[in-house]
């Protein structure tokens, strides 16, 4: 089996409501909550909440064992996965960064219609193997 280096797996608890589920994610950011209109929506919302909470981090909280999580009879405990690198690629947050490059490269780049932000982003991804 091929192991993906940035796949996170966390337990969640689905709490049935009159309509849909509230979702508890106990191991992320001290415990966070979301909700979904049905089970599928609840799981998708949990994955998104984990991605939002952890996208800017490089170290991730340890997940609890599913068997160690207490729940009531009507609550559902499951594991969800989030590929944090894929999440970052699909939900990019950009920031402005001031860089210094030789003047002749700026001139040549402009003359050739180079998108400097795109080139820097591609070079960083290549350098970081992502």
From TrEMBL:
<dbReference type="InterPro" id="IPR031807">
    <property type="entry name" value="HicB-like"/>
</dbReference>
<dbReference type="Pfam" id="PF15919">
    <property type="entry name" value="HicB_lk_antitox"/>
</dbReference>
<protein>
    <recommendedName>
        <fullName>HicB-like antitoxin of toxin-antitoxin system domain-containing protein</fullName>
    </recommendedName>
</protein>
<feature type="domain" description="HicB-like antitoxin of toxin-antitoxin system">
    <location>
        <begin position="10"/>
        <end position="107"/>
    </location>
</feature>
<dbReference type="InterPro" id="IPR035069">
    <property type="entry name" value="TTHA1013/TTHA0281-like"/>
</dbReference>
């Amino acid at each position: 089996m091929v192991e993906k280096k940035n796949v996170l797996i966390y337990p969640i608890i689905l709490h049935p409501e009159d309509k849909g589920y509230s979702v508890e994610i106990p191991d992320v950011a001290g415990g966070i909550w979301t909700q979904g209109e049905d089970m599928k929506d609840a799981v998708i919302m949990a994955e998104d909440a984990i991605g939002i909470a952890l996208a800017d981090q490089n170290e991730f909280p340890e997940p609890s064992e599913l068997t160690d999580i207490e729940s009531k009879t009507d609550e559902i405990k499951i594991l969800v996965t989030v590929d944090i690198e894929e999440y970052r690629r699909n939900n990019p947050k950009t920031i402005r960064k001031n860089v210094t490059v030789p003047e002749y490269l700026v001139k040549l780049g402009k003359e050739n219609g180079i998108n400097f932000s795109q080139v820097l982003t591609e070079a960083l991804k290549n350098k970081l193997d992502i």
